[in-house]
Amino acid sequence: MKVLVCGGAGYIGSNMTAMLAREGHEPIVFDNLSKGHKSAIADKELVIGDLSDYNLLVNTLEKYKIEAIMHFAAFIEVGESVAEPIKYYRNNLCATHNLLHAMETTGVRKFIFSSTAAVYGIPETIPITEDSPTKPINPYGQTKLAVEEMCHHQSEAGKLNFAALRYFNACGAGNNGTLGEDHRPESHLIPLVIQAAMGKREDIKIFGTNYPTHDGTCVRDYIHIEDLCRAHLLALKQLDNQREIRCNLGNERGHSVREVIETVKKVSGKEIKITETENRPGDPPVLTASAQKAKDELGWKVERPDLEEIVETAWKWHSDNPNGYPD
After folding, report:
1. CA 115 – CA 200 distance, rounded (Å)
2. Which parts of the chain have pLDDT scores under 50?
3. Could you tell me the CATH superfamily of domain 2-170+222-249?
4. What angle do CA 188, 189, 195 make, to 5 degrees?
5. Which residues, listed in sequence order, are joined to residue 110 by a DSSP beta bridge?
């Protein structure tokens, strides 16, 4: 299948592009390279462009005879979304509206959307199921939920088959440890701790040590990038028979901030300076997923659940690429 991977030069997108190619599909990357890295997609076909460019989108869909689209081109920083909400509404919502418009114009029906656990806000119960109330508490989560609803209505109108896959904490390096996280600036815990272990960061900060968890630090659900990407392949197949899919993608296991730090120390053999600081407003003590719906509807299962293995793949990539991607 010819699949347009929007944001395909980014962390998740590049791993998805590589997996699509391995599985015999033909990925075409669409990326403005504002966050992505050209070297992460090797020799894959690349269209440099922005989702706000309707004419380019239509031309691309027609030129490559695109059959399905995977969308990884959103901005993802929660704090930035609070400080610059218009930026997030413009890129995450308006640009996706433009993409869906181009899909309708060209008759492309299959759409897989990179959604997020942030649509739930501060959950009332743990683990979080798809029946949990969706009450996002920041523009990032709100824009993702708005896209889901836009897709739902387009689907109800008979114009779209879509999957909204709600990620928890994607992590690790895929494609035999050759495709890792290189966000600039970095905000995800595992690469931040690895940077501290490599001496590229003075310390790692723990924001709050008095949460009602087993060690006082926040607990999150970490899922290996390749487990995440495999769910997209299964969803792509399922969209032949199902008009709308909304599923959590998580490990269904929680690990605390301290556990992540200790695991990086073990894998790296390095000491890490820790600075304890105040709790961050709006940080829930525990966020873990129920992924039962993805198991039932997609036939998906987590194959790499072990935190130490996840960190080992990330450590390998950072060790091999101490300065990140060359571009």
Report:
1. 31
2. none
3. NAD(P)-binding Rossmann-like Domain (3.40.50.720)
4. 95
5. 68, 161
Task: Return d(Cα 179, Cα 313) in angstroms, integer.
Answer: 9
Active-site residue numbers? 140
- Retrieve residue 3's tokens: 């699949």
User: How many residues in the chain?
Assistant: 327
pLDDT, tens only, 217-270: 999 999 999 999 999 999 999 999 999 999 999 999 999 999 999 999 999 999
Alpha helices in 109-222 (DSSP H): 139-156, 189-197
Where do the domains of the chain lie? Answer: 2-170+222-249
Residues facing 115 on adjacent strands: 166
- What is the model's pLDDT at position 283? 87
Which helix (H) or strand (E) is 181 found in, with range? none
Per the listing, tokens 């090797």 go with: 42
- DSSP, res 131: T
d(CA 204, CA 276): 9
Residue 281's pLDDT is what?
83
Q: Tell me, what's the pLDDT at 231? A: 98
